[in-house]
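As a next step, the fold was encoded as tokens, giving this record:
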Amino acid sequence: MRRRNIFVFFVAVSLFGLTFGIYEISIPFYLQSRKISFPRMGDIFAVSFLFAFLMRQYAGYLSDIFGRRPFFSAALFLSGLGNFCTPFFNTVGTQMLLKSLRESAFGVKETMQSVILYEGAEKEFLNTYGKNRGTEWIFQAAGIFLAGIITIRFSLSAAFFTSGIILFLATALFWTFFQAAPVKEAAGRRSAREIFSFDLTGKLRYLTIIYFILNICTGLSHGPTMPIYFRERFGMSLAVIASLMVAHRLSMGFPMLFAGRLLGKRPKLFYLTALIFGGFSLILTPFIPRASIAIPVWLAHDLLGASIYIPIHNYLVQKYAGEDIRGLHVSKSFAYGSLGMVVGFLLSGYLYNFNIGAPFFAAGAVAILTCFLVARL
């Protein structure tokens, strides 16, 4: 990948990370301020991932024909549109539509980001991906901090408007200055059945199943679960929760910056070790009565867990994807895998009503069980 492209790509991804942090800390409290219950929040998140499931695959297929640049640009713009319009609507139905637009764009962005990095530096993918995603997560931390400032000085609505405007600027930057690579000849036009069917084979199919299960964990333990849990369990203010989410992002971002150079040596062992550490940290969190201990234990699920296994999983998916249909294969694997988020989000609301720590415990248990599948890779 050319030096200018690397710079433009890193800037665009960093700006996206900034807006993601603003959005993530703001959306559960905004929905709550509109009297939308926790189970209905879970429904909103779940439905949005179902819609993203379809859009992600179709965009991946089209990117094999028209290139990655138009779809990464569109993903930035539509994410901005979804963020900017959020404060104008208050009902569950309209928020489902906006969240579906945003999550579809996010899914396309994730696919294009991974493919662009792999095609630009295949041999250095783990290192480049780790630095790119690590930088993005660090900017997410900055976004959470910025959201707190904007909300305190202005309002929650202003936070959404700010994130939307930043994404519009990121779109213009990427579209103007990123030089697209020549489009390789695709494998030919495909029917809707071929695009959306679960026809992955071999290790790519197996990796997709693993990703589906891991996304159940993510859906259970993330989204609205984390900020509302710490507020209800420990009486934390929005400012303190924002600080915790900053630490959450940094615990993911900084290890990724350096992990890429190490993970390629024994990826399977690192994958298993990360799942074990991450799973047990989530299992233990609900049983710890003191926030000063619960917080670092909870943060370990990223510091010693996800920050390690996510780059490895992405590398393996790229490795086993078809060369001439990489966009379709990668997007299909991630799309089907992301359906686990739907299951996780749906379960989280109902488990939360049973016990506020139940979503964390269930997520950790599922992560530990996934080790048996990873061991067979």
Notes: The chain has a mean pLDDT of 86. The domain at 3-179+198-374 is CATH 1.20.1250.20 (Growth Hormone; Chain: A;). The two ends are 30 Å apart (CA to CA).
